[in-house]
Amino acid sequence: MRLFAAPRVNVQEDYEQIRRLQRQLAAIPTSRYQISDLALDAADGTHQIPVRVFQPQEKRRDDLLLFFHGGGWVTGDIDSYTPACDTLADLTGCVVASVDYRLAPEHPFPAGLEDCYRVARLALEDPARAGVDDASRIVLVGDSAGGNLAAVVSLLLRERGHRVPSRQILLYPVTNWDHHPETSPFDSVRDHGSDYRLTDAEVRDYLELYVPDPALRSDPHVAPLMADDLTRQPKTLLITAELDLLCDEGEAYGLALREAGNTVEMYRIDGALHGFITLPRFARPLREAYQQINAFLDGDPT
């Protein structure tokens, strides 16, 4: 497993290099993909939010998967996640819309969150424009920091009095704010925070870039596990990775959602590392995750 661990980097100094490397690794000719690009106006009109739409090789479902990528709110974009979103489209038979939200540190919290919220709200309010006949067919999906954004967008939609999506799929999401091994309430931070794919130091660096003000890091819009009210949230599939330092906090969020009266399905992939959704299609953790995702999508959308 350690052979696949990411090289240790100083995120706060090297995030631009990480971005370039991610794009290079994902630089597969676009002719392989059935994609189209569009842009939506931000709520304040100051910028546009790029969205890349992926058509599956064979469309088997009417759902639209609105995808928020991972990368610690600092790295990742629609280019580096194009292979993963193409896989998501093909293995589910769904149209996938990947949101290129603004990244920290150039655009700290809540910039990226507001971009994701804007796209989700527009899609839910006008599902025909999003290409579906009913808003219940729109599913929020996110991995890691993107899972965090999906969860918080669902909270914001309810808090602001707008339609909440019927379903969300959270893949190894960030849900807590404290990832120091001496103070974290979660054993997975201590057990898996120094040796595998993602380290506790890297998560702390990402969070500092995303939320420069320490007083805001425990805000529920950064750490949804801190929310006092988790009622009226979407039906949720929450998938964690056994060897991921975020494993315990992800599962704690699933339990908190369930205790608040929501329908939650949780699944832990044994032997999996953080970030498995970007693995090649033959990888066992990826195939196992898609078995759960497809079963969830086959269920009642309401």
From TrEMBL:
Q: What is this protein called?
A: Acetyl esterase/lipase
According to the record, the signal peptide region is: none
Q: Which organism is it from?
A: Tessaracoccus bendigoensis DSM 12906
Give the molecular function GO annotations: sterol ester esterase activity; triacylglycerol lipase activity
* Classification of source organism: Bacteria, Bacillati, Actinomycetota, Actinomycetes, Propionibacteriales
Stored InterPro entries: AB_hydrolase_3 (IPR013094), AB_hydrolase_fold (IPR029058)
| A cellular component annotation (GO) from this entry | cytosol
Q: Name one GO biological process term.
A: triglyceride catabolic process
Q: Where is the Alpha/beta hydrolase fold-3 domain?
A: 65-277
